[in-house]
Amino acid sequence: MQNLTWVTAGLTDRGLKRKDNQDNFFISQDRALLVVADGMGGASGGERASKLAVETIERLWEEDKPDINNAKSVEAWIQNAVAAANTSVRTAALESRDSPNMGTTLVMAVLSENGHAHIGHVGDSRATYISTVASSVEGLTSDHSVVMEMFRRGQLTKEQCRVSPFRSIITRCLGHDENVSADYCLKVMNFGDWLVLASDGLSEVVQEEEIKETVEKFECPEEACATLLEMVLSRNAPDNVTILSAKLVSKKDVPGKATVSMPQVTAEK
């Protein structure tokens, strides 16, 4: 694993139905931290909430990175980062007259060059793992949502969850409660494997198997992200969408920095 590294890319788009983009994302220059936040609470409130969450985590990363080769250190850092981001958003909400209900989802990944992907999430933004060798896909997060709770109780099928009018109601987010913790998981990845982080603007219209089939066609994350966005836009893009991808590759195949941020704005239709 010592000769491996990550190549990463990210983009965001407001979609075809929304006037504003309430999503935000961050990819660190060392390609070891990826963050997606999907805000809520009105146009200005949602955008501010997601931006506050991302900026708080970015600042913590710059000030006090964890030992990324120590799983306990990374898990503790993720929980601390989530708590700090929650405090930032909640404080802003309590002080706001216009957006007292602002909040945001969050999904983040800390990546080490030994192939370990540490995932933390709150809400319904997702992390998806694609194994190139096995040609398989695995969701690494379980939505904190009303429909997912009903699915776990056997009250809804997966297909019913996809079309339920309650599918956008989440049960956990940053900014609404004093104390919030992230669900955490560790995924050991291999050469050629992919990780995709995204807001629900992707999962609403593109299924996991389609994500797998798309990224497998490409060598670089930029093309994978751009093609996934094209799929969303071709299906009317009802929500803001943010897509980050990371691939574990050989160091000799990476000539320089591989972090790419491509914010995009779609014209009104």
From TrEMBL:
Q: Which GO terms describe its molecular function?
A: protein serine/threonine phosphatase activity
Q: Which domain of life is it from?
A: Bacteria
Q: Where is the PPM-type phosphatase domain?
A: 7-248
Query: What taxonomic lineage is listed for the species of origin?
Result: Bacteria, Bacillati, Candidatus Melainabacteria, Candidatus Obscuribacterales, Candidatus Obscuribacteraceae
| Pfam entry (one) | PP2C_2
Per its record, how is this protein called by name? Serine/threonine-protein phosphatase
